[in-house]
């Protein structure tokens, strides 16, 4: 086996490859761009080499830089992951020329499948069924139109060099053809430098079912069953599962054989995926057609690993090292059911466009049969430079029903905050009855749009009550801690048997949810509470606080667990299976006597100064943030109550302040 492997990728797939190498005792070399100096994959690898600036074109796509790094570190092989250089025949060849093993298929096999049209011609010869269509070299427009007519509307125009859904246009009728063709060609030319297209019959209710194949250097090949990747947005996968629901054993065998035939037809070696489109319409009767072959490890390979109990990266390393396939076809069997969902930094309500930002809070779920593959940690940035995938969540259970239950629980426990993600959308997919009923085809999201993308929802009372009680309970803990730590028996803190606020009848908390301002009033009832949201009724509430912001609540007889995290004035609440964010409007932020013109800005509660944003002499407008205080495990920004001048700042970052301490002297403008 190789002694050292370089991973020419980043993110979750680089981390995933490193994990297997480590288990097999193989040393690892990461490569990284300037944007990734502190990335997880760099930290995980035994060595790491800087290969260039942030843009992929200047780093992760720089074949020569990567090969230099391999030579300099003495790596014997390169694993390309997926994306980037994984399907670049020139890179595979350059590796071979440099005497470094490319962990993937031979350059010829990549080339053969690189053009969707050429791939189809090869498959046709091998007797693999194709979607009715045209995949010839002749690109004459009149000919393309004539072919489209022959195929029959609707048709799908695809860039032959395509990938990632680019250069693809559905054409519903002849009137749209010329415009769609021009659009597809333009997009193909700009994305791939090649404007050639092919035309296919556009199936209206298809399923995307793909076969995982594996071949070794002696020409032996097996299939590791199928994955159903029908739940897609923008023709790109978000949910994948194995096995495909409702797959008949004879269809599985027929598709598996066709896929193995496809691999052998091009002298394939290593891991590959043969993608099929399956006609799910009543007339289509489950006919399957070859779509394309991806000559690499696929994003969704973990579902196959789960149901076969195999490590596909280990298989890749062994085959690349010249070993035979670890198992023969009759030694492979399906165990249970696995589902993967892709957690993306994106905005489902904004056409699923990618989002960027800092992952201020990130707690992945854990448990038996739950796997999370991720390349980021809490605090990391999702930048504009790379793929916005945050993580993949994979669940495995004895059957599909149990896998869905596990998926729902794992998604409910997933905590992400700081940027827009598709998490709530994934939760709705997992909870949808049509998903439970396995009514899968590529229009799933479109068909259930109203349920899956309901738009911004007002936060529930449950969330507001949780946020308000969290603040009180954390403050109570803090006071009790201070009482215990106090050596002065006459200190007011020491006198607190629980909490001096018990002496008052109620506390108000204020939140903003979009345009809505909401007051939450908490009355103390012995150790319990009565809480009213806005003009709503006062509900009996019990609440306890555990570690790390975890809470148990009982609101009017409904018991649930919750977690709260504060990011600035934003309060994120995960209550039962709900996640919502509200903004706390802090009515204590300015307790100076404005009427008297007194300029005292005081700490609303005991805490620590984390940031001082102004200096003495600064002239500020109303609302300008002045000091950021951390208290009750949340940040509170003290802002200028009115236009004015900062006369003096009494604390520096890091200082601890008492409740009521004057933070800065402030003079309002006349
Ligand atoms: P890419 O290179 O972007 O992966 P594919 O050819 O694999 O392109 O197609 C991507 C997706 O587009 C498929 O998973 C499927 O959902 C849809 N698709 C492809 N071909 C057809 C077709 N003939 N009819 C309907 N949908 C199709
Ligand atoms: P699959 O067909 O295997 O599901 P996709 O086409 O959905 O794969 O995703 C592959 C894409 O992932 C690449 O085209 C690229 O945009 C992106 N990608 C490449 N490298 C990484 C990485 N390290 N982490 C996340 N995404 C990546
Ligand atoms: Mg594809």
UniProtKB/TrEMBL annotation:
Keyword field: ATP-binding, Biotin, Ligase, Nucleotide-binding
Domain Biotin carboxylation span(s) in chain numbering: 1-450
A family per Pfam: BT_MCC_alpha
Cofactor annotation: biotin
Record-annotated Lipoyl-binding domain positions: 588-667
Domain ATP-grasp: 120-321
Top-rank taxon: Bacteria
NCBIfam families: PRK08591.1
Protein name as annotated: Acetyl/propionyl/methylcrotonyl-CoA carboxylase subunit alpha
Native source species: Tistrella arctica
Lineage: Bacteria, Pseudomonadati, Pseudomonadota, Alphaproteobacteria, Geminicoccales
